[in-house]
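Sharing in case it's useful to others searching the archive later.

Someone asked me privately for the predicted structure of AP-1 complex subunit gamma, so I'm posting the question and my answer publicly. Question first, with the sequence:
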Amino acid sequence: MVMPSLKLQDLIEEIRGAKTQAQEREVIQKECAHIRASFRDGDPLHRHRQLAKLLYVHMLGYPAHFGQMECLKLIASPRFSDKRVGYLGAMLLLDERQDAHLLITNSIKNDLSQGIQPVQGLALCTLSTMGSAEMCRDLATEVEKLFQQPSPYVRKKAILTAVHMIRKVPELSSIFLPLCAQLLHERHHGILLGTITLITELCERSPTALRHFRKVVPQLVQILRTLVASGYSTEHSISGVSDPFLQVQILRLLRILGRNHEESSEAMNDLLAQVATNTETRQNAGNAVLFETVLTIMDIHSAAGLRVLAVNILGRFLLNSDKNIRYVALTSLLRLVQSDHSAVQRHRPTVVECLQEPDPSLSRRALELSLALVNSSNVRAMTRELQGFLESCPPDLQADCASGILLAAERFAPTKRWHIDTILHVLTTAGNHVQDDAIANLTQLIGEAQELHAYSVRRLYSALAEDISQQPLAQVAAWCIGEYGDLLLEGSCEETEPLQVEEEEVLALLEKVLQSHMSLPATRGYALTALMKLSTRFHGVSNRVHQVMSIYGSCLDVELQQRAVEYNQFFQKYDHMRAAILEKMPLMERGSPQVEEKAEESKAAQLTETAPVPTEPQASKLLDLLDLLDGPSGDTQHPPHLDPSPGGALVHLLDLPCVPPPLAPIPNLRVFERQGLQLNLSFVRPPGIPALLLITATATNSSESDVTHFVCQAAVPKNFQLQLQAPSGDTLPAQGGLPITQLLRILNPNKAPLRLKLRLTYNHFGQSVQEIFEVNNLPLETWQ
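And my answer, the predicted C-alpha cells:
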C-alpha cells in the first residue's frame, strides 16, 4: 500500500515555509521515505511524479542516488511524460563515473531512430550532457543520420551533440567532417551557429580538418558579409546588431583558419575592415563583435593599417564607462604592445589615466601596460607619472610598481644623476616594497659615478634624517655616509641646496638608526660599519665610536655582536692598521657576462680538483631535484667510489702531480628558444675527475619585454647524481641585457648516455609561462 505523499508544488511550499534547517531536513526525510516506498511498490502511474520531487530534493543538495534506476525505467517507458522526467533525471543523477549510465545506451539509440522529434530532442540533450566516450562511439552513426533530418530542431541538436562527441572522442572527426561543408549552405541561423561551432572544434583538434576547412574561408567570409550588410531583423537582431552570436563564432573560426596562413588571411582582410568600421558600438552586442574582430586581426597575417585600426578600437574601449570593456582593452593592448608599439603609444595618455581607477584589477593592468610603454624617448615623462602613482597606489601594487620603475630606470636612464634621483625617490616612497637587489644596484651606481659622490651622500643624508623607517633607504644611506661622510662636511655642493652638517649630527643619526626598533638586523649592520668607517674620516670621534662598539659587543644578535667585537679589536690591538683597512671602497665595474661565466667555471673546476672524492654517504645527498626521469631499473644506483690515480685529484703531497692531456673543447648547445628567450648550455669536464660534468646554463632575452621570475630546474635519470647551484638572478632585461647563468654539476660514474629534463617557469609579456622539455642531443664528449 503506497503511503500518501505531497504533490511537487505542495512539497516546494512546505520546504520554503520551514523556518529552520532542522525543519527543512525533517520535511525532506519524511518525503524521501514516501518516495522510496513508492519506488518499492512499483507504482508506474505516479513514478514520474515521485522522481520529479526527488530531483527537486537533489537540487537542494540532499542525496538522491536511490532514484538512478527509476530514471532508466522511465526512459524505457513509451509515454512521453515519463521519458521527459526520466531523461531529466539521467542528466542530473548519472555521470561517467557510474556504470549505470551505460544502461541507457540502447534506450537512447531506440529513441533516436523513432522519428518523434520531442523524444529525439530529449535523447540528444541527454547524450550531449552526460555521454561518455563509450556511448559516443556506439551512437556516433545514429547522430550522423540525424544531420539529414528535415526538421531544423533535430538537426541543430544533433550538431551540438556532435560537438560533445568530438570533445570526448577526437577520432570521430572523420565521421562528421564531410557533412559540415554542406551544412554551411543552411539559412537557418541555429543550424549555422551549431555548424560553425562544430567546425571550430574539428579545426582545433585535427590538423587535417584545419587544412580541409581553409578551402571554405571565402564561403565563411560571404556569410559574415551578409550578416553585416543585412538590415534589422526582429528574429535575429540584438541592439541593432544582426545575430551577434553567429558573427562572434564566425570570427573565432576565421581566426583559427587564418593563423599562420597567408592566403586565408588575405581573403578576410577586407571583411575585417568592414566589420570594424560598420558595427554599432552603443550596446554591448556591438562591442563583443568588435572585440572578436580585434582578436582576429591580431592573430592572422593582417595588413599594417588593419592592425592600427584594431589598436584604435581598443583605444576607444578605454574610454568606455563599462569596467569590463576597459579591462579587456588593457589586456589586449598589453598583448599588442610588443608587435605594434608605435600604434599603442598613441594611447599612452589614456592608459596613464587608467592608473587612477579605483578598481584594483584595472589599475594593475594599467600599471603593467604603462611599464611596457616606457622607452628611451618617454622615460622621463612616464617615470614621473609612475612615481605619482606609486605615492597613492594600494599597498599590494607598490612592490610591482617600484620594481617596474627601477627596471625602466636601469634600461633607459638618460643620465646617472637622473638614475640616482629616480631610485632615491622610489626608496623614499616605497622602500620597504623593493627587492633586495635594488640596494646593491644603487650602491654600484653611486660607486661608479665618482663625480656624484658628494651629491649622492647629501641627498641620502637628508632623506634618512626625514625618515628612518624605510629599511632599504636606511641601508643605502648608511653605506654611502660611511664611504663618503667626509664630503658632507666640505661645505655646499653646486648641485644641491647648501647643507651645513656637523660631525656630531652625522654620528647621532647613525646611532638613532642603530637604536630604532624599526631597524632590521641588516640595517643595524650597515650603520655599525658606517660608524666604524667614520672613525677614520672624522676627527676626534674615535672614542665615541669605540664606546658604541663596546656596547654592541654584548648584543643579543650574534651577527651584530661578532661584527662589534671584531671592530673593537681594531681599537685595542690593530689601531695602527685601522685607517688603511677602512679606506674607501675602490670603484666597482660591472664585469661582462662572459667573464663572469668563465670565472664561475674555473672556480668550480678548481674546487672539484682540490676536493676529495665524495664517499657513498656524501654522494647520496645529491638527490634528484625533480625526479622527473626514471632510471633503467627500479632501484637507485649509487655511483661507485672513484679510485685515486696519479693523474687524479688525490695526489700525494710529496709526489709530482701528473698533468693530464688537455681535453678537446665541447661545443655549446642551444636547447630552448621562444619569443626572444634563449637557453644555451656550455660544458666543461674537469681533467681531475672525468666522471664529473659541469654545465653552465645561460639564459638571454632579445625580446622587447623583460622576463621576470625566471626559474630553471633540471632532472636526470636515477643512475646520475645532480647538484644545482644558485642562479645569478631571476630577471632578464629586454633587448640583450645581462643574462642569467646557473651551474649544474652532474656525476656520471658509469659513463652512461646523458639526458636532461628541464623545466622553465617565467613571466613574459604579462603572462605566466611554464615549459617542460627533454634534452637528448647532448654532445658525445659530455659522457664518453
